C-alpha cells in the first residue's frame, strides 16, 4: 500500500514536471515537400537513448497532419509533437502505427490528447493484446520505471484490412496492410505525390533485419514492394534511401538466412544449431547482428521445418 | 558439507537480491525465490536430491526468442544402473504457469534425450526433476535470461498457427548404426495460447487453448508421453532418442484443452530421409 502511494506520488511529480517543462524538439529532416523524418539511432532501446531507435515521420497536408509512428517512449513522442508544433499548427488528424513493436508505438500516449484517429493493420489490436504486457515488463529492465510508467498501449480504432486512403487536404496517403512478413501486422504508407514510401520495418538498412512474423512472407513482401512506384523509402531503421535499391541488402540477408536454415533442417540439425550457424557470413555487413541474428535463425527454423 | 555450502550460497543470494531490489525494483526476481513454493505445489514437498549424476539440462543462457527457447534433457544413468528414469518434470520458475511439462518415459523405450521448446517470460531458474524407479527425486537447474527486444512469448503469426491446428509430422533422423538408439521428432501444429493475455479492446482474457497431453508409441509400446502446459511453445515439438523394438509403426496422439484429439501414425523408416 505504501509502495502504491509512493508510486502514485512519483507519477504526479512526473506529470507535473512534464507539463511544466517545454519539451525539447526532436530533430527532423525535410526529405520531400511537407514530409519530415526523424532518423532513429541504430541501437537497442535503453534509458539513455529514450527508446529513440526507430525512424518516425509526419506529412503535412493543406488541412491536417498525419504522423507515422510515435517512438519508443512517451518522452520521445512528446518531443516529436513539439517538433510538429514548431512547423505547423494544423490539426493532427491521424496517428499511423506501422506495426506493434515498442520502438514504434510506445510514444502513442503523447498524442492521445490531440483528437487524432489511431490507424493500424487489422491485426494490430491483437498483437498489442498478446505482446504488449510483455513489452512493458521487458523494457522496464533496460529503460527503467520513469520512462515505462508513462507508456499506454493505445490500439488503433481505424483498421486497415487491405488498402485505405487518408486525405490530408491536397495530399492523399495510401496505406497497405501486408500478410505476415516482419510481423503479422505490418502496414506501409505511400505518398504518391512525392513518391515517398514509409515502409516501417518491412525495410531495414544498416540495422540487421528482424524476423518476428514469417520469413517466406517477408521475402514475398520484398518482391511486391520492389514494384511500388516510389522514389525514396523511409525504412523503419537506417537512412532514408533511394528506391528500390534500398532493398538489396535486406533481400540478400533474408535469402541467405532461408537458404542456410533450410540446409540445417535438411541435415537434421537441432534448432539450437541454427542460432549458431545460420547466416553468419552476413555478420560484418550489419549493425546489431549479434543482437538479432540468433533469434531470426530460431524463428526461421521453426517456420521452415514445417515446409 | 554440500548442504552447508548451498545454505551459504542461498543467504548470499538473498542479500544480493535485496541489494538489487533496492537499486532497481524491476530486477527483484532473486529476492523472492519461488522454488520452495514450487517444491510444495508441484512435488508435494518430497525431498529432492542433487541430480547432477542422474540428468542434465541444456538451455541457452540468453533466450534469443522468448517464444521459442530450446531445452534439452539428458539422462546420465549408467547402463549398469538398476534404476531407470520414470519421469522428468520441467519447471520454469518465473513463468506464469511454472510447470512447463512432465515427460513420462516408456518402461521399455530407453529414452535418454528429450528436446523441446518453451516460452520464457522473465529472467528465471529452470529446474528439471527426474523421478527414478526407486521413487526418489533428483534435480538439476540452469538459469535463462529472457531476451529483450521485440521478441515475446506469444505467436508471431497467429493466423498461421491456427491454420496448422492438428497437423502432425514425424521425422526419423539418420543413424550411423543399424542397431542401438534412434533419434526422432514429432511436431504438432497448435497455437498453444497461454490464456494470460488481455485483449486491450474487449478487456477480456484471450482463452487458454493448448496441448495438454501428447503420447508416442512404437506399435503399442509407450515411448514417451508429455503432460504439457502453456509454457510449451506454439506447435509443440519433441525430439528424442529411443531404442527400437522392431515395431512397424510409430503412433502419436495429442489432446488439447478444447477436447480435440489428434491422432496419426507413420510407418517406421517412412520419414522422408
Provide a count of the helices of chain A: 8
Give the amount of beta strand of chain B, in percent: 35-45%
How many distinct beta strands of chain B?
16
CATH architectural grouping of chain B: Sandwich
Give the CATH class of chain A. Alpha Beta
Largest interface: A-B, 49 and 50 residues
Overall geometry of chain A comes to globular
Q: State the order of secondary-structure elements of chain A, H for helix, E for strand.
A: HEEEEHEHEHEEEEEHEEHHH
- Structural class of chain A, by secondary structure, is alpha/beta
In one word, what is the shape of chain B?
globular
Distance separating the two termini of chain B: 51 Å
pLDDT averaged over residues of chain B = 84
Give the amount of beta strand of chain A, in percent.
Answer: 15-25%
Distance between the termini of chain A: 53 Å
How much is the radius of gyration of chain B in Å?
20 Å
Describe this structure in words.
The complex is a heterodimer of chains A (307) and B (273). Chain A has 307 residues and is α/β, with parallel strands linked by helices. Chain A has eight helices and 13 strands. The longest helix of chain A is centred in the middle third of the chain and has 25 residues, at 124-148. In chain A, the strands form two sheets. Chain A has a seven-stranded mixed sheet, with no helix packed on it. Chain A has a six-stranded mixed sheet with strand order 8-9-10-11-12-13, with helices on one face. In chain B, the strands form two sheets. In chain B, strands 1, 3, 5, 6, 8, 9, 12, 13, 15 and 16 form a ten-stranded mixed sheet that branches. Chain B has a six-stranded antiparallel sheet with strand order 2-4-7-14-11-10, with no helix packed on it. Residues 1-29 of chain B have low confidence and may be disordered. Chain B has three helices and 16 strands. At the A-B interface, helix 4, helix 7 and helix 8 of A face helix 3 of B.
Amino acid at each position: 500500500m505504501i509502495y502504491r502511494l509512493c508510486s502514485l506520488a512519483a507519477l504526479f511529480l512526473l506529470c507535473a514536471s512534464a507539463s511544466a517543462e517545454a519539451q525539447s524538439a526532436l530533430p527532423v529532416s525535410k526529405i520531400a515537400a511537407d514530409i519530415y523524418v526523424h532518423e532513429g539511432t541504430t541501437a537497442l532501446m535503453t534509458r539513455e537513448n529514450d527508446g529513440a531507435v526507430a525512424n518516425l515521420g509526419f506529412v503535412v497536408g493543406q488541412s491536417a497532419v498525419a504522423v507515422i509512428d510515435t517512438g519508443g517512449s512517451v518522452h520521445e513522442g512528446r518531443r516529436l509533437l513539439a517538433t510538429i508544433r514548431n512547423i505547423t499548427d494544423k490539426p493532427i488528424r491521424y496517428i499511423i502505427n506501422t506495426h506493434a513493436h515498442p520502438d514504434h508505438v510506445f510514444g502513442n500516449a503523447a498524442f492521445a490528447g490531440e483528437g487524432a484517429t489511431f490507424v493500424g493493420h487489422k491485426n494490430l489490436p491483437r498483437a498489442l493484446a498478446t505482446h504488449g504486457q510483455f513489452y512493458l515488463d521487458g523494457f522496464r529492465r533496460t529503460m527503467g520505471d520513469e520512462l515505462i510508467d508513462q507508456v499506454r498501449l493505445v490500439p488503433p480504432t481505424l483498421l486497415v484490412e487491405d488498402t485505405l486512403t487518408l486525405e490530408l487536404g491536397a495530399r492523399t496517403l495510401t496505406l497497405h496492410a501486408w500478410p505476415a512478413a516482419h510481423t503479422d501486422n505490418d502496414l506501409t504508407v505511400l505518398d504518391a505525390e512525392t513518391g515517398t514510401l514509409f515502409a516501417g520495418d518491412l525495410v531495414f538498412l544498416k540495422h540487421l533485419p528482424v524476423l518476428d512474423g514469417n520469413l517466406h512472407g517477408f521475402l514475398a513482401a520484398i518482391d511486391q514492394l520492389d514494384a511500388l512506384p516510389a522514389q525514396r523509402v523511409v525504412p523503419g531503421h537506417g537512412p532514408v534511401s533511394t528506391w528500390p535499391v534500398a532493398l538489396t541488402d535486406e533481400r540478400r540477408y533474408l535469402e541467405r538466412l532461408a537458404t542456410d536454415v533450410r540446409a540445417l533442417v535438411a541435415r537434421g540439425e537441432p534448432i539450437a544449431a541454427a542460432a549458431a550457424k545460420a547466416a553468419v557470413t552476413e555478420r560484418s555487413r550489419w549493425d546489431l547482428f549479434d543482437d538479432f541474428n540468433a533469434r531470426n535463425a530460431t524463428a526461421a527454423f521453426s517456420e521452415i521445418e514445417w515446409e | 558439507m554440500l548442504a552447508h555450502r548451498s545454505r551459504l550460497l542461498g543467504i548470499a543470494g538473498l542479500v544480493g537480491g535485496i541489494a538489487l531490489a533496492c537499486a532497481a525494483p524491476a530486477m527483484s526476481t532473486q529476492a523472492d525465490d519461488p522454488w520452495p513454493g514450487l517444491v510444495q505445489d508441484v512435488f508435494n514437498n518430497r525431498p529432492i536430491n542433487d541430480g547432477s549424476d542422474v540428468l542434465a539440462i541444456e538451455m541457452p543462457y540468453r533466450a534469443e526468442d522468448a517464444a521459442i527457447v530450446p531445452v534439452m534433457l539428458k539422462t546420465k544413468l549408467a547402463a549398469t544402473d538398476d534404476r531407470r528414469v520414470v519421469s522428468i518434470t520441467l519447471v520454469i520458475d518465473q513463468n506464469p504457469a511454472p510447470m512447463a511439462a512432465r515427460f513420462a518415459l516408456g518402461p521399455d523405450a530407453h529414452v535418454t534425450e528429450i528436446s523441446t521448446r518453451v516460452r520464457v517470460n522473465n529472467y528465471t531458474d529452470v529446474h528439471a526433476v527426474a523421478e527414478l524407479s526407486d521413487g526418489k527425486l533428483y534435480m538439476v537447474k540452469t538459469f535463462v535470461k529472457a531476451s529483450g527486444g521485440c521478441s515475446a512469448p506469444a505467436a508471431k503469426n497467429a493466423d498461421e498457427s491456427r491454420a496448422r491446428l492438428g497437423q502432425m509430422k514425424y521425422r526419423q533422423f539418420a543413424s550411423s548404426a543399424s542397431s542401438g538408439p534412434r533419434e526422432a521428432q514429432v511436431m504438432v501444429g497448435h497455437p498453444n495460447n497461454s490464456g494470460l493475455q488481455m485483449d486491450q479492446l474487449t478487456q477480456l482474457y484471450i482463452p487458454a487453448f493448448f496441448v495438454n497431453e501428447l503420447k508416442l508409441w512404437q506399435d503399442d509400446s509407450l515411448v514417451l508421453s508429455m503432460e504439457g502446459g502453456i509454457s510449451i511453445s506454439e506447435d509443440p515439438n519433441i525430439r528424442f532418442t529411443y531404442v527400437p523394438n522392431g515395431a512397424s509403426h510409430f503412433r502419436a496422439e495429442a489432446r488439447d484443452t478444447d477436447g480435440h484429439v489428434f491422432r496419426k501414425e507413420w510407418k517406421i523408416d517412412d520419414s522422408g530421409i
